[in-house]
Design goal:
Pmp4, flat, 200 residues, Peroxisomal membrane protein 4, 77% helix
């Protein structure tokens, strides 16, 4: 048993196999991370908002967890494979290799419009926007870091409020519902009860 373990260790430490093994480990890490992130989220959302039987609720949680984990694992596999291929073709890793690899992987894995993919893509989009808000500071276009976030926050809120009041059907249903509750339902009441304790 020890000799088998030693041989396996020697294999994974062999430099020639590093690229291939990095793809395998990336697939593994995508599965683990996706499951760790999605399972508790799906479980809590199911318990809070889905009023069905235990079997259906369990199926929903497991399906969402499997999809999130699978998508991250396969995206990582495609991304790392393309990065390695480009590096071998050009002799070095170039800045836009990551863009191309992400473009292909994103289209193949996250191109299907479903709930899990929407959440992942929107999460990334929000982080990208935050990064772009910080970029002028990094590039010394704006000297004060404190100046970027207020501008970013005000533009985000201005845009979402404009869309909600003028083009609300383009917003996600869950966002429409939450904004309806906060901004429009608060305009209506008829008794003390539905003013303080109940919305309607």
């Amino acid at each position: 048993m020890d000799s088998l373990k030693h041989a396996a260790t020697q294999f994974i430490l062999t430099p020639e196999y590093h690229d291939l093994l990095s793809i395998v480990k990336g697939f593994r890490n995508g599965l683990v991370y996706g499951a760790k992130i999605r399972f508790p989220h799906a479980l809590v959302m199911t318990l809070l908002f889905r009023r069905t039987n235990f079997k259906d609720m369990s199926k929903f949680v497991l399906k969402a967890t499997r999809q999130h984990a699978r998508n991250l694992a396969f995206f990582c596999t495609i991304y790392k494979t393309l990065m390695i291929l480009q590096r071998r073709i050009h002799g070095k890793e170039r800045p836009f290799d990551s863009f191309f690899s992400g473009l292909v992987g994103g289209y193949i894995i996250f191109g299907e419009n479903n709930g899990v993919n929407q959440q992942i893509v929107l999460y990334l989009f929000s982080r990208i926007m935050m990064g772009l808000a910080k970029l002028p500071v990094k590039r010394n276009v704006i000297a004060e870091p404190a100046n970027t976030f207020p501008v970013f926050a005000s533009l985000v809120w201005a845009t979402v409020m404009y869309l909600f009041y003028n083009e609300r059907d383009v917003l996600q249903p869950s966002l429409q519902a939450s904004m309806q509750y906060i901004y429009l339902d608060s305009n209506r009441w008829s008794t003390l009860k539905n003013f303080l304790w109940h919305n309607k």
